[in-house]
Amino acid sequence: MRAIGRAAQCFALFTIIATQLHLAVAHTWVERLRLISSNGTFVGDPGFPRGNVLRTSPGFSDVPMTHLLGPTIDQSTQMCSDKQQDAVQTDGSPRLKAAAGSFVALEYQENGHVTLPNNQAGKPPNRGTVYIYGTSEPQKKENFTAIFKVWNADGTGGDKRGRLLATQNFDDGQCYQVNGGNISVARKTEFPKQPDTLQGADLW
Ligand SMILES: *[C@@H]1O[C@H](CO)[C@@H](O)[C@H](O)[C@H]1NC(C)=O
Ligand SMILES: *[C@@H]1O[C@H](CO)[C@@H](O)[C@H](O)[C@H]1NC(C)=O
Ligand SMILES: *[C@@H]1O[C@H](CO)[C@@H](O)[C@H](O)[C@H]1NC(C)=O
């Protein structure tokens, strides 16, 4: 699964996954960021979010990387989880280095939201929309309601500290986690991949 945004220098990225029904009813997170070359291939070293806990860490669980919003969203709702308020990288998970204007892919797992759509009723065909916001002036305690659908592509929204860099379909049309559902089975045939240590047999 790849949502693609365009980077400006030193941007902090905030990623929000929304469906038509509820904000962040899905639970997944950006696992890795990649620089995309002009021919569409991934180049350079990968980057990672603040406070990243690698899936390959001993004793890994989803909890440290999950920041579920709702059902009530109000002015105190935080854009970042408690563990990601500070721009601090963990050992082995450096920040992505990208020149201004680069295209960047944000990789995440579909967690069944694409391949097992009937697990929760009412999923839209694109499985929800990923909103990617960036700022060169990140602050602690960024308030969700001051950014989501307030910052805009021109940088003239709200307090004007950031921009909407991209909106993307949650489903990139190729991703799958391996399961017995017909979508996963069909995609595994259409987009085969060699298992690797980070993604396993799944295709992010
Ligand atoms: C794509 O571009 C990258 C970076 O410039 C280069 O290393 C790679 O060989 C290119 N791949 C192809 C298939 O042209
Ligand atoms: C978030 O909202 C609180 C309460 O209104 C405010 O004190 C704080 O400055 C806001 N945070 C940012 C980064 O603007
Ligand atoms: C999966 O099954 C559903 C329900 O029968 C069907 O609507 C859909 O087209 C199938 N998708 C694929 C990729 O086979």
TrEMBL record:
InterPro entries documented for this protein: DUF7492
Occurrences of domain DUF7492 (ranges): 25-204
Keyword Signal: yes
Organismal lineage: Eukaryota, Fungi, Dikarya, Ascomycota, Pezizomycotina
Keyword Electron transport: no
Signal peptide (residue range): 1-26
Protein name: DUF7492 domain-containing protein
Pfam family membership, one: DUF7492
Record keywords: Signal
